[in-house]
């Protein structure tokens, strides 16, 4: 780190005090956790005893149980001598079944258990505020779900957000602690761990962006979250810098599961109305009804580019303009590079020039400081043909992360100046996630984009080069 | 494409000891016997509605588990306050909503109107199938609107009672994977291997109706192992390695319990059906009050 960056992220006394405080809290939490685990184990034992008891109580049960006991080659439970003996029995470590702490269900708690501290952000699906759990003093983020399209009952987007976030336990995914309710049945709040920053605001506030080694760390963290989601058949469908949260310990966590859902293989028909425009994959813009994990990797590519330049990579004004920007950077798809793309609903109304654009050159030109490996990774993530994009697992093993400078360890990641009050985040205008009901089709007047390729392929311009919507 | 799924996605939340020791319904004066019958009737109703709606069996099974979860424990729902037909409908509607096969409120309510009508096949469990009488289950616009309001309100109540845990992992898929791992499901099926797989799944399906709420008290892996154990014994397939269940992290004691639980389920269902022969298990609040 240079001295300039040092002043930006200096570890001052306040930070040290904060760190000490954090350690103390961690100790306490650890203790509480151990206690909870012990209780769980006790319950597990009790539960089993209860059932064994219940079975023994029914006459049928007793005989059947004995029979099974004999078959399984073990002494009948009732013949066991004493609980002490039971405990003394040493089990080989390898034979010990793994136990996963499963959540329990019970009525939602009331939001009154939390004291609101301040508002953070209003988004398209709800508002978020910083709050303190009164009983524990824990600072959390409360996100209120918007219920306005409640004609079909509880909004399916909210149900999926909760379902997928609850199922996701990963160090790079924001932890959902619980769901609480207000006075009315449709006042529903997600209680999440609070994170100090989001990547978008953080980057806007920085003078010269993240260093190459920091970018690698951030990208690895994002990708390992995405790998986890995809391996659990969850699509995020709204990856963008404002949905990536950061704490002061160099950790990034993916948030905002408002668009997330389970998917299948073969992919089911899903809505194309997903992903904020600037991060939306070309197959979505072209109206593909069947798509998969590849759309999230396109967004990862856009985020990668944004981290490198501190600017959103593809800032289209609308769907058509977005496609034009994409083709400008990545070239025009052909039947050879993307077999079948012409059959996508919106591609039919698109008149494309008949050229052989290469993609590498333009991406390389736009990122002159990126190494060969970095360029190769970015180029593959931004493959127009979804089948050519790498999977998240493939990204994680990419040579880019093995060459110097190596990814910076989160332990020595800079701590960002803590905006102590966590006042409302300043937001530069940018598009938000699509709402239900937005038109997914590209319609309208013929658009001529011949100009955008002018400096790329001069011979072709003369040949009536145009990207047209007809 | 994807690597091994995360282990946590293969587990379910389980009922606590406290939740199993008592229930809202019992506190409201519903005898445990009748409570078991009501649970079974609700599960059957959900199953029948799912079939009429042509929902895949896994969606139906998930809805049944959700239905059970609602009525468990002193803080759960009570059969005397939330009618089982409403909770069954809300469970199915909500489960379908987050799946690939969402259903309209209209079709769900039509099906429930039919199944709870006086000419419902559920009311006449014997083979005396009288012709269903459309008059008795036709939903006018007015009654549709009020049924819809009830459905959506029950959905909210259900979600709150479950603290929004809607995830249900079923053991069926796991059981087939285990059979493959055990080498008893060859790529080209034999008569025996087909029977083994079929019986395994049958034990799991019957187990869903267990009065011991096996799907609320045991993880999918344990249910899968016990069903395989029973099916292999029945079909006469030898699972060679001793203590094979430990490979799947299931201990002997839990297996023993589940083998009894799953094995006795069919008999219990028969008894339950006999018990209500000629009359109908109460599906509405009024019917329950009369029964009590
Ligand atoms: N756990 C959290 N800790 C701190 N801040 C958070 C947390 N969750 C969300 N935020 C802040 O609130 C903003 C909005 O949250 P989120 O993206 O989940 O809501 P949204 O309504 O779906 O937003 P949008 O539609 O704008 O994407 C985030 O960009 C972030 O700044
Ligand atoms: Mg967001």
Automatic annotation (TrEMBL), chain A:
<dbReference type="GO" id="GO:0005524">
    <property type="term" value="F:ATP binding"/>
</dbReference>
<keyword id="KW-0547">Nucleotide-binding</keyword>
<protein>
    <recommendedName>
        <fullName>cyclin-dependent kinase</fullName>
        <ecNumber>2.7.11.22</ecNumber>
    </recommendedName>
</protein>
<dbReference type="InterPro" id="IPR050108">
    <property type="entry name" value="CDK"/>
</dbReference>
<dbReference type="GO" id="GO:0004693">
    <property type="term" value="F:cyclin-dependent protein serine/threonine kinase activity"/>
</dbReference>
<keyword id="KW-0418">Kinase</keyword>
<dbReference type="InterPro" id="IPR008271">
    <property type="entry name" value="Ser/Thr_kinase_AS"/>
</dbReference>
<dbReference type="GO" id="GO:0005634">
    <property type="term" value="C:nucleus"/>
</dbReference>
<keyword id="KW-0723">Serine/threonine-protein kinase</keyword>
<feature type="compositionally biased region" description="Basic and acidic residues">
    <location>
        <begin position="62"/>
        <end position="74"/>
    </location>
</feature>
<comment type="similarity">
    <text>Belongs to the protein kinase superfamily. CMGC Ser/Thr protein kinase family. CDC2/CDKX subfamily.</text>
</comment>
<feature type="domain" description="Protein kinase">
    <location>
        <begin position="114"/>
        <end position="401"/>
    </location>
</feature>
<dbReference type="InterPro" id="IPR045267">
    <property type="entry name" value="CDK11/PITSLRE_STKc"/>
</dbReference>
<dbReference type="InterPro" id="IPR011009">
    <property type="entry name" value="Kinase-like_dom_sf"/>
</dbReference>
<feature type="region of interest" description="Disordered">
    <location>
        <begin position="406"/>
        <end position="442"/>
    </location>
</feature>
<feature type="region of interest" description="Disordered">
    <location>
        <begin position="1"/>
        <end position="98"/>
    </location>
</feature>
<dbReference type="InterPro" id="IPR000719">
    <property type="entry name" value="Prot_kinase_dom"/>
</dbReference>
<dbReference type="Pfam" id="PF00069">
    <property type="entry name" value="Pkinase"/>
</dbReference>
<keyword id="KW-0067">ATP-binding</keyword>
<dbReference type="GO" id="GO:0007346">
    <property type="term" value="P:regulation of mitotic cell cycle"/>
</dbReference>
<keyword id="KW-0808">Transferase</keyword>
<feature type="compositionally biased region" description="Basic and acidic residues">
    <location>
        <begin position="20"/>
        <end position="47"/>
    </location>
</feature>
TrEMBL record, chain B:
<dbReference type="InterPro" id="IPR043198">
    <property type="entry name" value="Cyclin/Ssn8"/>
</dbReference>
<protein>
    <recommendedName>
        <fullName>Cyclin-L2</fullName>
    </recommendedName>
</protein>
<dbReference type="InterPro" id="IPR036915">
    <property type="entry name" value="Cyclin-like_sf"/>
</dbReference>
<dbReference type="GO" id="GO:0016538">
    <property type="term" value="F:cyclin-dependent protein serine/threonine kinase regulator activity"/>
</dbReference>
<dbReference type="GO" id="GO:0006357">
    <property type="term" value="P:regulation of transcription by RNA polymerase II"/>
</dbReference>
């Amino acid at each position: 780190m240079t001295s300039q960056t040092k002043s930006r992220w200096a570890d001052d006394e306040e930070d040290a005090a904060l760190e000490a405080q954090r350690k103390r809290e961690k100790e306490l939490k650890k203790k509480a956790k151990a206690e909870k685990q012990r209780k769980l184990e006790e319950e597990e034992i009790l539960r089993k005893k209860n059932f064994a008891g219940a079975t023994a109580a029914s006459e049928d049960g007793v005989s059947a149980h004995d029979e099974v006991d004999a078959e399984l080659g073990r002494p009948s439970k009732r013949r066991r001598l004493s609980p002490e003996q039971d405990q003394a029995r040493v089990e080989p470590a390898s034979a010990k079944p793994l136990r996963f702490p499963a959540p329990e269900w019970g009525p939602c708690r009331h939001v009154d258990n939390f004291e609101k501290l301040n508002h953070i952000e209003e988004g398209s699906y709800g508002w978020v505020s910083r709050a303190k759990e009164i009983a524990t003093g824990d600072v959390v983020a409360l996100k209120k779900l918007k219920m306005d399209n409640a004609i079909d009952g509880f909004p399916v987007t909210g149900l999926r957000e909760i379902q997928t976030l609850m199922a996701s336990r990963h160090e790079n995914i924001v932890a959902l602690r619980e769901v609480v309710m207000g006075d009315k049945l449709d006042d529903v709040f997600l209680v999440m761990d609070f994170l100090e920053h989001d990547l978008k605001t953080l980057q806007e506030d920085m003078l010269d962006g993240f260093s190459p080694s920091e970018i690698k760390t951030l990208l690895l963290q994002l990708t390992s979250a995405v790998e986890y989601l995809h391996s659990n058949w969850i699509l995020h469908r709204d990856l963008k810098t404002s949905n990536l949260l950061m704490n002061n310990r160099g950790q990034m966590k993916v948030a905002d599961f408002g668009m997330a859902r389970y998917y299948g293989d073969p992919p089911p028909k899903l809505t194309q109305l997903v992903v904020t425009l600037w991060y939306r994959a070309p197959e979505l813009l072209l109206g593909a009804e069947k798509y998969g994990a590849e759309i999230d990797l396109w967004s990862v590519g856009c985020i990668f580019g944004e981290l490198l330049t501190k600017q959103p990579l593809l800032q289209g004004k609308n769907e058509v303009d977005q496609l034009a920007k994409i083709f400008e950077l990545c070239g025009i798809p052909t039947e050879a590079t993307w077999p079948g793309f012409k059959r996508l609903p919106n591609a039919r109304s698109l008149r494309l020039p008949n050229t052989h654009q290469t993609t590498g050159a333009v991406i390389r030109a736009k990122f002159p400081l990126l190494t060969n490996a970095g360029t190769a990774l970015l180029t593959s993530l931004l493959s127009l043909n979804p089948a050519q994009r790498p999977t998240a697992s493939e990204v994680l093993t990419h040579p880019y992360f093995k060459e110097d400078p190596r990814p910076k360890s989160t332990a020595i990641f800079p701590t960002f100046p803590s905006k102590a009050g966590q006042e409302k985040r300043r937001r530069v205008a940018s598009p938000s996630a699509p709402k239900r009901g937005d038109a997914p089709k590209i319609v309208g007047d013929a658009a001529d984009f011949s100009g955008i390729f002018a400096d790329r392929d001069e011979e072709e311009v003369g040949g009536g080069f145009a990207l047209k919507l007809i | 494409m994807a690597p091994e799924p995360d282990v946590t996605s293969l587990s379910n939340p389980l009922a606590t000891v406290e939740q199993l020791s008592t229930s809202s319904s019992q506190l409201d004066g519903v005898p445990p016997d009748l409570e078991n019958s009501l649970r079974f009737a609700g599960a059957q109703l959900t199953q029948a509605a799912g079939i009429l709606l042509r929902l895949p069996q896994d969606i139906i099974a998930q809805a049944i588990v959700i239905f059970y979860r609602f009525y468990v424990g002193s803080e759960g729902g009570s059969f005397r306050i939330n009618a089982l037909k409403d909770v069954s409908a809300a469970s199915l509607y909500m489960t379908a909503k987050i799946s690939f096969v969402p259903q309209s409120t209209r079709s769900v309510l039509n099906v429930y109107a039919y199944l709870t009508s006086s000419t419902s096949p559920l009311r006449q469990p014997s083979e005396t199938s009288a012709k269903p009488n459309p008059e008795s289950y036709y939903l006018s616009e007015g009654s549709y609107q009020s049924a819809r309001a009830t459905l959506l309100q029950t959905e909210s109540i259900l979600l709150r009672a479950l603290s929004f845990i809607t995830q249900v992992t079923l053991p069926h898929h796991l059981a087939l994977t285990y059979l493959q791992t055990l080498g008893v499901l060859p790529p080209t099926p034999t008569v025996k291997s087909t029977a083994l797989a079929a019986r395994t799944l049958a034990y799991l399906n019957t187990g869903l109706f267990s009065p011991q709420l096996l799907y609320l008290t045991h993880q999918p892996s344990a249910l899968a192992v016990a069903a395989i154990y029973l099916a292999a014994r029945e079909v006469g397939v030898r699972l060679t390695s001793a203590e094979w269940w430990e490979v799947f992290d299931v201990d002997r004691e839990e297996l023993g319990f589940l083998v009894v639980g799953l094995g006795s389920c069919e008999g219990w269902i028969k008894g339950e059906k006999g018990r209500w022969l000629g009359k109908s298990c109460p599906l509405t609040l009024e019917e329950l009050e009369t029964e009590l």
